[in-house]
Design brief:
The protein is α+β, with helices and mostly antiparallel strands. Helices cover about 35% and strands about 25% of the residues. The protein has two domains: about 90 residues, Nucleic acid-binding proteins (OB fold (Dihydrolipoamide Acetyltransferase, E2P), Beta Barrel), CATH 2.40.50; about 300 residues, BirA Bifunctional Protein, domain 2, CATH 3.30.930. The protein starts with 5 loop residues before the first helix and ends in a 20-residue tail after the last helix.
């Protein structure tokens, strides 16, 4: 016996089919039972007729509850009134796993849903977002393979910080102490001297004491590093990559995105437009002139400023040349304006904020040492990194994309926690 997925059965359209899955909804009378069966591909209505399956079997079907697992054998037919436009007239079925009263309902609190995340994964909202997440990561991989990039996998345990020591997770390492990765940044810079253009996907950890809908303590960073590239080239590559991914996701998941409440036509049109690049100082001017916000030079743009700035745009925007004093030590000074760094953030519209962060990488070892010492860091931990500049150093640039932030933006999710299977935040580390 060969089981089809629901999507395969719908594609077949008629004839005998064997399906297995879980009860998504159920209703019925004393003669007919309507079961909406779900699997990972779709949902389909199945009609169990007492006259066909017999009294005893119908009595079993009548006891079915949501999330019971079953095998169904029957005939699929087109039925416009049914969910998905098809239904299966059941000839026989087998209950594989009975189900107690399923505790997850749409009216429950976020705390309850997160506490029972192992069950919440089954909700249509979350499972749909996770399918889109999977596609996004796959098409991103395809993008870089076609461009001839080489995949590079960094260590997760790292001896030093690259994004600020206050957000490090400390790990006992035998008799020593090490830290969970904040980024692949420093190691990717070593890789470009051998591989030139690299990309990767890896878990990232930031011990930020933030409870916002945009922050996770553990997330997946999709990153890129390229030898011989400057700020303009790397930021344009980030735009090209994201546009490619958005269009690919829209093509495959049009109905899924509509279910999540996304305006698919608007998203497609956005990916086909030009995405502007402005300098940080221009962003401050726009905030002052159009939003009445007087933000002093030297202040990093936070959620409020980013949201107000993006009210001026209907597409993502690259903001470059942030103040050196609020940037990581490896982001170099602009030779023409020493108080500006050769870096960029890409901000998404509609309140989704920063989705990409990137920069050129500094070749000035003394400047990096001074900045690290100012942060209270031991420069001896970075000698291997400084070595890269001694042995054939070349200009290079890269960026990192928060996968969950991009998925949340594409899917129009209200909370970034809906873009990852098991969210880890300041207050949650289980299940």
């Amino acid at each position: 016996m060969t089981f089809l997925t629901i999507q395969e059965a719908m594609k077949q359209g008629s004839g005998e089919v064997s399906l297995h899955g879980w009860v998504y909804r159920e209703r019925g009378s004393n003669k007919l039972k309507f079961v909406v069966l779900r699997d990972s591909t779709n949902r389909i209505q199945c009609v169990i007729d007492k006259g066909v399956v017999g009294d005893d079997n119908f009595a079993q079907a009548d006891k079915l509850q949501v999330e019971a697992s079953i095998e169904i054998h029957g005939e699929i037919k087109k039925e416009e009134r049914a969910p998905g436009g098809y239904e299966v007239h059941v000839k026989s079925f087998v209950i594989v796993g009975e189900c107690d009263q399923f505790p997850i309902r749409s009216d429950q609190s976020r705390e309850f849903m997160d506490e029972n995340r192992h069950l919440t994964l089954r909700t249509r909202q979350l499972s749909t977002a996770l399918k889109i997440r999977s596609t996004y990561l796959q098409v991103r991989e395809e993008f870089f393979i076609k461009k001839g990039f080489i995949r590079f996998d960094p260590p997760i345990l790292q001896p030093s910080q690259c994004e600020g020591g206050s957000t490090l997770f400390e790990v006992k390492y035998y008799k020593d102490t090490t830290y969970l990765s904040q980024s692949w940044q420093l190691y990717a810079e070593a890789a470009v001297y051998a591989l030139e253009r690299v990309y990767g996907t890896a878990p990232t950890f930031r011990a930020e004491k933030s409870k916002t809908s945009r922050h996770l303590s553990e997330f997946w960073m999709v990153e890129t590093e390229c030898a011989w590239m400057g700020l303009h080239e790397i930021s344009e590559l980030a735009k090209e990559e994201l546009k490619h991914c958005v269009l690919a996701v829209v093509e495959k998941h049009t109905e899924d995105l509509k279910f999540l409440g996304q305006d698919v036509d608007k998203l497609r049109a956005m990916a086909e437009k030009e995405w502007p690049t402005i300098k940080y100082r221009e962003a401050l001017r726009l905030l002052k002139e159009k939003k009445g916000m007087d933000v002093p030079f030297g202040k990093d743009l936070r959620t409020v400023e980013e949201d107000k700035l993006m009210e001026c745009f209907d597409v993502p925007v690259c903001v470059t040349h942030y103040p050196v004093e609020v940037m990581a030590f490896y982001k170099p000074r602009d030779p023409e304006n020493q108080d500006e760094a050769l870096c960029f953030d890409m901000l998404a519209p509609d309140g989704y904020g920063e989705i990409v962060g990137g920069s050129q990488s500094s070749m000035d070892v003394e400047d990096m040492k001074q900045r690290l010492e100012k942060e209270g860091e031991d420069c001896s931990n970075y000698e291997w990194y400084f070595d890269l500049r001694k042995y054939g150093g070349v200009p290079h640039s890269g960026y990192g994309i928060g996968a969950e932030r991009v998925v949340a933006w594409i899917c129009k999710l209200e909370n970034i926690k809906e873009a990852i299977p098991f969210p880890r935040t300041m207050l949650r580390w289980k299940p």
